[in-house]
Amino acid sequence: MKLDVKALTLATALVTASLYALCAIVVALFPGPSLAMFAAIMHANLGTLSWAMDIGTVGTGLVCTTALASLIVYAVGWTYNRLSERGALRDGRALPQS
To answer: What is the pTM of this model?
Structure first.
């Protein structure tokens, strides 16, 4: 099965941008609990850290996060299709043998 890499990449961009926007809204509405959750996820003491949110940082973060996720998914889809074409996935091998 060949993946439609462009459709997969676009879907990733849309989902990533939506989740990033939702995250920015949650942080804006609940900065204290958001920081506590982030500290727990990072296993860090973020006592001196504070949020620096304005339209510029949110916009830049949205674009960079979406672009990075899309690039990663495009690379995964492209790699999957190359391995699939060579029969590496069908034969149960991770990489084609020479």
So the answer is: 0.72
